[in-house]
Amino acid sequence: MTRRVVITGIGVRAPGGKGVKEFWSTLSGGRTATRRITFFDPSPYRSQVAAEADFDPVVEGLTAAEADRMDRATQFAVVCADEAVQDSGLDLTALDPYRVGVSLGSAVAAATSLEREYLNLSGGGRNWEVDPAGLSPYMFDYMVPSVMPAEVAWAVGAEGPVAMVSNGCTSGLDSVGHAVQLIREGSADTMVAGASDTPITPIVVACFDAIKATTPRNDAPEEASRPFDGSRNGFVLAEGAAMFVLEEYDSAKRRGAPIYAEVTGYATRSNAFHMTGLKPDGREMAEAIRVALNESRADPTAVDYINAHGSGTKQNDRHETAAFKRSLGPHAYATPVSSIKSMVGHSLGAIGSLEIAASVLAIQHDVVPPTANLHISDPECDLDYVPITAREHRVDTVLTVGSGFGGFQSAMVLRDPEEAA
Amino acid sequence: MSTSEEERAMGGGIPSAVRQTVRDAAREDGPAETARSGSSPVYVTGIGVAAPNGLGLERYWEAVLAGRSGIVPISRFDTSRYPARLAGQIEDFDASTHLPSRLLPQTDVSTRLALSAADWAIADAGVDASSATDYDMGVVTANGCGGFDFTHREFKKLWSEGPQAVSVYESFAWFYAVNTGQISIRNGMRGPSSALVAEQAGGLDALGHARRTVGRGTPLMVTGGVDSAFDPWGWVSHLSSGRISHATDPERAYLPFDREARGQVPGEGGAILLVEDPAAARARGARRVYGELAGYASTFDAAPGRVRGRAAHPARPRRGRAAGLRRAARLALTEAGLEPQDVDVVFADAAGVRDLDRVEAAAIRDLFGVHGVPVTAPKALTGRLGAGGGPLDVATALLSIRDGVIPASGATADVPAEYGIDVVTGAPREIRVRHALVLARGRWGFNSAVVVRAATT
Amino acid sequence: MQSTITMTIDDLHRILADCGGASEDWPRGADVHDRRFEELGYDSLALMEAAVRIEKEYGTPVPDELIPTLSTPRDVLDLVNGARPA
Predict the structure, then answer these.
(1) Where does the Carrier domain lie (chain C) (predicted)?
(2) Most CB atoms closer than 10 Å: which of A127, A240, B138, C25?
(3) Is the pLDDT of residue B16 over 70?
């Protein structure tokens, strides 16, 4: 008898607003949260736009000591974990801590702190041999960032399995998929899972500049992220986090928990092709979708909405469109597809979890968030991408997908708890 | 083993006091879950090792049995301004003789080691990856530092030459998933893949996840871990952990469980293993089976002082971690269907920091009784390899099973009596090994345990 | 800024080897001017990395939108040596 896993709590910090309500208001309103970078002077960089979150650790309730020791991405994760637990109504003190675990995704983890400490230690980048005098006591934890899930585990009192899943840009799907597996197999009953990344820092901007993966559309930052649009020319870097409480279905039901959705299927495959390149045929993503649907015992026609990876790079959007057609057949043309990256940008490892949150909210509201900035059609992207305006649409089953450097292709199926039951 | 299956089932041959202790421990450790989907054993059919005291499985094993250490003064940069100068350094690895030159501009030293170790593991297993179904092979590796040396060079270029100088390869040579991705690409493996980070515990987590993935239907997984960060920035990052030995004598720098333990020595390298579903391994006529990954578990230590999290400041290593480590060991044994008395050897985490050695000794003593099982720490000869440490210990445990010998723990000699553990010191101990328990702890409370056993055919 | 230094096929080969590794697919002694870079063992990343180097060494700007159109060594040599408008 397979244990079923449901989402009972959500915490979100994303560009455009604080918390789940404002996140949904941004998405359903089709508002874009991309802007010219304010965290540092972006003028020497090719891509000068990003989706920054307005986040103040003190306002968020972190102590000065916590704000000092935690990297920004950890701060996001801990705040979202708190919010998710609160949202779930779970009384952590009543749980067996051995049966509570954490699964946290992040692609570049403590990048912000790494860069700050690097500049401290190297005389502003002048010296190769760094000066140990200015060494932060937390430097090791920025290099080896497993302190991130540790901080979350401390925050929620978890003493079961604690994991950090770092699969690049699919981390946010894979960390939740990992948590689902742990509950199903019986290694934990409750998992606090999700992902966080805060990569808007010079080294990350520069490394995406180098491969021209981010957009140089600097003159109109709010229109810079344009997935599936014929004029798209790269993604917009972003930051954010989403954390969830995942529980075994029966115990969630017993305690009368608010059930947002059931995770009915998850799969990941690799393209084994290129660290950054994608073959246009979408074969491996299609396979991940097929396996996830199979696990959900769902026919392709059951999919009401596809929450796309939709990064806005030339190759991704074409690749993904091919994968949808390959896995769903003609139903791909009948299904609304949208990319929230058009509004909140691409927060690397975090975005998969933010997209799970968006999918769950789409189920809850029976509304499909739009793809903003989609004006010009592209013959290679010929599905229904819900341009500009959100759409009322019955959503019981969502397919959400991710694709990332290293070749990772992941898919997850989420279902309305009423329908799933 | 003197205890037969039946005796074990009856609890015969075991003093009742010990049985009582074991029951008490089981109660404290919490309910043992049995309904795990990953609970069927998987075979280890190939091993690739890149260790400071030996490149390649057999050279490493020879060095371990001979007590040869790979701990040396760091030669990659001038260490004179730093308070610690010793590391487990791999000195005889020339990437260009192992890998196509096209992979060199885009890889950190850690990824080159990981790719080579994966090649060796696959060759050792006699697997022809090109003839297997691509979706039937996956990759799960652990990573601690990412491509740190590589990324240090790119940080330097960014801040001394400007953004245009940053390499196109930085975006993936740095990140923690790089080894998984590169191994997958090099070998055409398109099955479920992942990368995990849990400092020194992460390598065992990768093995555990590979085992789970086989249990869920992927017949072959490449797994393990490799770490390296011996550029100047990586080195001071190690130093900031506050646990690094400042000793100057390579022989005496890292002495886990010794009365004179004075800290850790970081090392580089690790091991990559090929694990398979037993039926699939038999079907392809696997040439050898080193043993089984029979059990795995991970736990996390309570927040400092049981205060719910954020009020407590985790700036110092905490005492009293024994419970979490013992619980991981117990859960892994349960998953393997074994009792503590079935275990022939424990490969310890072996922190080399007195407080941490003491709590590990207590965990082992509580579970096995005073001097209840041989305990070894061959990592005293390599330094602590981060994500590579657990997989290398598992490889070593499998060789102990193969050759019936437990290696010694480097120069560790004088183990405090109050630890109450039987550390294998001085010379290897010849003994039949059927079941080994491998422990690993990651900084801030990660505990992982893997049980390996001789293959049941 | 237009360079006065001429780039030879050997120069290009050296830069590519630095940026993308020495390729086993680059045939010795054969005329490779019109072979596609993929056949010669260099992917789009190697080419992007090479573009930065070429700009630095030869002073020839290689605009982003031009890189995907550079598919053979001849394309690059023509660009750098001025037979083709940048």
Answers:
(1) 3-84
(2) A240
(3) no
- Residue-by-residue DSSP string for A280-296: TT-HHHHHHHHHHHHHT
Out of B242, B257, B283, pick the residue that ends a domain.
B283
For the stretch B238-279, pLDDT in tens is 999 999 999 999 999 999 999 999 999 999 999 999 999 999
pLDDT band at B307 (very low <50, low <70, confident <90, very high): very low
| Per-residue pLDDT reduced to its tens digit, B109-144 | 999 999 999 999 999 999 999 989 999 999 999 999
DSSP letters of B283-339?
A: HTT-S---EEEEEEEEEEPPPGGG--GGGS---SPPS--HHHHHHHHHHHHHHHT--
User: B357 and B427: one domain?
Assistant: yes
The whole domain housing B236 covers 42-283
CATH class of the region A5-254? alpha beta
User: Phi and psi of A40, rounded to 5°?
Assistant: -155, 170
pLDDT of residue B314: 40
Q: What is the mean pLDDT of residues B215-243?
A: 97
DSSP secondary-structure letter at A406? T
Domain ranges of chain A: 5-254, 265-416
Q: How close C23 comes to chain B (CA, Å)?
A: 6
Q: Which two tokens stand for residue B400?
A: 């102990």
ipTM score assigned to the predicted complex = 0.98
Domain count, chain B: 2
Distance CA A102, CA A185 (A): 15
User: Tens of pLDDT along B159-187?
Assistant: 999 999 999 999 999 999 999 999 999 99
Cα R_g (chain B), whole angstroms? 21
Enumerate domains of chain C plus CATH numbers: 9-23+33-78 (1.10.1200.10)
* Burial tier of B137 (Cβ tally within 10 Å: 0-12, 13-18, 19+): buried
Q: How confident is the model at residue C26 (pLDDT cuts 50, 70, 90)?
A: confident
Looking at B283, B309, B328, which one is the last position of a domain?
B283
Region of residue C79 (phi > 0: left; psi between -120 and 50: alpha; otherwise: beta): alpha
Does B181 lie in the same domain as B54? yes
How far off is chain B from C86, nearest CA to CA, in Å? 19
Cα dihedral sign for B44, B45, B48, B54? positive
In order of A29, A348, B27, B30, B229, the CA distances from B24 in angstroms are 58, 46, 5, 10, 43
pLDDT, mean of residues B361-369: 96
User: Which phi-psi region, left, alpha or beta, contains residue A319 (left: φ > 0; alpha: ψ -120 to 50)?
Assistant: alpha
Q: Please indicate, yes or no, whether residues B234 and B355 belong to a single structural domain of this protein.
A: no
What is the value of pTM for the model shown?
0.94
Contact present, B310 and A62 (Cβ < 8 Å): yes
Contact B177 A408 (CB under 8 A): yes
To the nearest whole Å, the CA of C46 is away from the closest chain A CA by 10
Domain co-membership, B276 together with B210 = yes
- Domain co-membership, B47 together with B33: no
CA–CA distance, A375 with A230 (Å, rounded to integer): 8
Distances from the Cα of A169 to the Cα of A179, A215, A413, B148, angstroms = 17, 17, 18, 19
B266 and B360 share a domain? no
Cα A419 to the center of its chain, rounded Å: 25
The CATH number given to whatever domain includes residue B138 is: 3.40.47.10
Are B144 and A184 in contact (CB < 8 Å)?
Answer: no
In chain A, residues with a C-beta closer than 8 Å to the C-beta of B155 are 114-115, 118, 122, 125, 203
pLDDT at A193 over 60: yes
Answer whether C20 sits within 8 Å of B102, measured CB to CB: yes
Q: Please give the positions of A annotated as active site.
A: 169, 309, 346
Residue B82 clears pLDDT 60, i.e. is over it: yes
Q: Name the class of domain A265-416.
A: alpha beta
Structure tokens at B62: 């020879």
Answer yes or no: do B216 and B362 share one domain: no
Q: Report the distance separating Cα B49 and Cα B395, nearest Å.
A: 8
Which chains border A (3 or more CB–CB pairs < 8 Å)? B, C
